[in-house]
Amino acid sequence: MSLTRAADLPEHVDVLIVGAGLSGIGAAYYLQRDHPSKSYALLEARGATGGTWDLFRYPGIRSDSDLHTFGYEFKPWTNDKSIAGADAILAYLRETAAEYGIDRKVRLHHKVHGAAWSSQDARWVVDVERTDTGERLKLSCRWLFCAAGYYRYDQGFTPRFEGVERFQGRVVHPQHWPEDLDYKDKRVVVIGSGATAVTLVPAMAGAAAHVTMLQRTPTYIVPVPAEEWLAKVLRKVLPKAWAHALMRRKNIGMQRFIWRFCQRYPHVARRLIRWTNARQLPKGYPVDEHFNPPYNPWAQRLCIVPDADLFKAISSGQASMVTDHIETFTEKGLRLKSGQELEADLIVTATGLNVQALGGIPLTVDGAPVHLADRVAFKGMMLSGVPNFALALGYTNASWTLKVGLLCEHFCRLLAHMDAHGHSICTPELSDPAMPTRPLLDFDAGYVKRSLEALPRQGEQAPWLMSMDYQADTRMLCKDAVSDPHLRFSSPVRPGREAS
Fold first, then answer.
1. CA 463 from chain center: how many Å?
2. Where are the alpha helices (DSSP H) in 391-445?
3. Which structural domains are found in the chain, ordered by start?
4. How far, in whole angstroms, is CA 176 from its chain's centroid?
């Protein structure tokens, strides 16, 4: 029997992180902080780090959470703007990666096409393409950590519009914003009502002849200060790390309070938001037509507008809102079901994302394909029946990174537990395969509802519950024991050897 030469084996690391955006860079930091002896690499399919913040180039792109909570706990946010633009966020991410040497572990243009787990070898073998050269290679790892986000980077969602081919102007999706697009003095219609639309409208309003936001259904829109005076004061009198920690704690508490208030008192929350909107708009403005959603607050994510910029654009006459359904595109613009016609030179389809779980990476376990819809999330970071696999999914009711940071800390605790007890394999297992489940994300957004059948599920209680409570998650992920009755630890089963 011939022996396999070492040169024929794929390169091996302890942890392979897929995605070099916000989540991937954070995962790398916690891993090298808590396990400096473990080897790791980050694979990034695109040609630059930063994920979302490098990909999107549309006007005004910014965070929809404050950076004291959206940023990392370990890296103070010192920019004056709490609601920051993409350039500032991207600079922050890349500074973090450089400061901690994470950028040296990133391999750009490495697209993962699949990953296969072998229980006999206790490792993943990952099929990778070098997109800059076309070369195919394999890497192996003990743990595979997916930080690839939750939507398709190469394709945004655009519904089928009747007559779109007749339109003589230009149609653009924000996810694929052309560098050469000139909208100065152009009539612009932005189709959509989510965070992208409410960002685009005021950002384009200054240069365009007029911008119309065309929505089918209103969204809750809340003005917030772009800069927080308290943060400026604290940075003047305290070390940056202390000021950041205090602002982070304050904003975590505020986010939690607002979400719980909306859940407990939805009708009061609705009235408060309406009152706030009416104060920002001209007297007699039809608030109930354009700012009165048919659902309760936080059934979908609230849209925030820094310094009330959307309301200012509407009040100045540079922008307007229309709530109606599209009947058809025409040569000159859009005809609505009400009969109204909107003329446009440019139409922006801010119509959402295409959700793609695990970055679209197909998984197999001992030769059997993993069907995500048949799996249940364990503590929001692993999948039932899938060994040595972790994923980063953040909050939908607060800053995404708050949850990701807790998951990364728990992941490192899990590795330490395995090392201490001599385990090689860790697999979440359902004790009751007939356990009732529900969609992974209890969220009424269209992009989520379109993708439910392709996503894993969640249970009704911990550890199978996809918790959205930061305090409860802090206890479970950072303080409670790592071991769990639903978590099976083992070692490889070699031919001719009993399981350990």
1. 22
2. 400-421
3. 9-153+354-490 (3.50.50.60), 158-351 (3.50.50.60)
4. 18
Closest C-alpha among 344, 348, 327, 345 to residue 336: 327
Closest CA to 333 of 322, 344, 323: 344
Per-residue pLDDT tens over the stretch 195-252: 999 999 999 998 999 999 999 999 999 999 999 999 999 999 999 999 999 999 999 9
Whole-angstrom Cα distance, residue 398 to residue 357?
20
Cα separation, 432 vs 43, in Å, equals 36
Residue 2 has pLDDT above 70, yes or no: no
Angle at CA of residue 97, ends 79 and 36, nearest 5°: 130
Going by C-beta distance under 8 Å and a sequence separation of 6 or more, which residues neighbour residue 211? Answer: 188, 189, 190, 200, 201, 204, 205, 313, 318, 319, 320
Q: Which residue type, as a one-letter code, is found at position 20?
A: A
What tokens were used for 393?
């999914």
Q: Which residues pair with 407 in a beta bridge?
A: none
Task: Kindly report, residue by residue over 303-350, the tens digit of the pLDDT.
Answer: 999 999 999 999 999 999 999 999 999 999 999 999 999 999 999 999
- The reported pTM is 0.92
| Mean pLDDT of all residues in 263-271 | 95
Question: Of 427, 358, 410, 394, which Cα lies nearest the Cα of 31?
Answer: 410
Residues 6+ apart with CB under 8 A from 227: 80, 81, 82
Cα(310)–Cα(295) distance, rounded to whole angstroms?
21
What CA–CA distance (Å, rounded) separates 301 from 272?
A: 16
Q: Please count the CA atoms within 13 angstroms of the CA of 296 that sit on its side-chain side.
A: 13
β-strand partners of 126: 115, 139
**Contact between 190 and 326 (Cβ < 8 Å):** no
Task: Identify any residues that bridge with 127 across adjacent strands, giving them in sequence order.
Answer: 114, 138
Nearest Cα residue to 353 out of 178, 154, 217: 154
- With b meaning 16 or more CB within 10 Å and e meaning fewer, what string describes 330-339? bebbbbbeee
- Percentage of the chain modeled with pLDDT above 70: 94
pLDDT tens, residue by residue, 439-457 = 887 666 665 666 667 788 8
Angle of helix 240-264 relative to helix 229-237, nearest 10 degrees? 150
CA distances from 490 to 15, 39, 295 (A): 18, 21, 47
DSSP category for residue 62: B
Task: Report the C-alpha gap between 320 and 313 in whole angstroms.
Answer: 8
Residue linked to tokens 């084996």: 9
